[in-house]
Amino acid sequence: MAREEIYIPDVTEDKELIIFLGRPNSGKSSWINIIFGIKRVKGKMAGSTKKIAVLNVPNHPKLNIVDVPGWGRVAGKSRQFASDIKDQIIEFIDAYSTQIKLAVLVIDLYSYKDVSERMSKKGFIPLDIEFAELLNKKGINFIILANKKDRFTSHHLDTNVDYLKESIIYTEPIFIQPCSAKNPDSTRKTREIVNSYIFS
């Protein structure tokens, strides 16, 4: 199958970028909606975001939000499709790394441990870790939203957050925030934390 043409949107040099990254169905678009009030296509099916989208932020003309497609396998899509998406994201980060003020890595905490262990057994670097390593290598400040904490009991939440921290902490995220897009207190607190890093 032929490789799809890489789509890299243009960004003017005077813009600062906040880029949201994550595997399919991790909740990136939902958190963009919650934090910035920017309505993005979202749904239960993975792969709602098809291409990199550069979005304006109301009342902040020098700031753009970047919503990228989820990387990783998507039901009904080929391995080549997943590879092309990954290449698209890496090329965008390479092109605009100096303008990225903050990256927000949204991780599906509920599936993270299982997916990471499965990929590691096959000899692959888990994709969340691979992109955290890329951000660290590029010198891009990033925070992690450990999404879907509402699906755990309190004990299992602590266990899975500890696993995440141990597996990814060497990539030096500036903050790890367990969160749930379905909980008003969690959305308020997470919004405040993200905004504190963006507008400080």
How would you characterize this protein structure?
The chain is an alpha/beta fold. It has one domain: P-loop containing nucleotide triphosphate hydrolases (Rossmann fold). It contains six helices and six strands; from the N terminus they run E-H-E-E-H-E-H-H-E-H-E-H. The chain has helices spanning 28-36, 79-96, 109-121, 127-137, 154-168, 184-198; strands at 16-22, 53-57, 60-67, 100-108, 142-147, 175-178. A six-stranded mixed sheet has the order 2-3-1-4-5-6, sandwiched between helices. Helix 1 crosses helix 6 (184-198) and helix 3 crosses helix 5. The longest helix has 18 residues, at 79-96.
- CATH H-level name... which superfamily? P-loop containing nucleotide triphosphate hydrolases
Low-confidence stretches: 1-6
For the termini, the CA-CA separation is 46 Å
CATH topology call? Rossmann fold
Structural class by helix and strand composition: alpha/beta
In short:
This protein is α/β, with parallel strands linked by helices and 200 residues long.
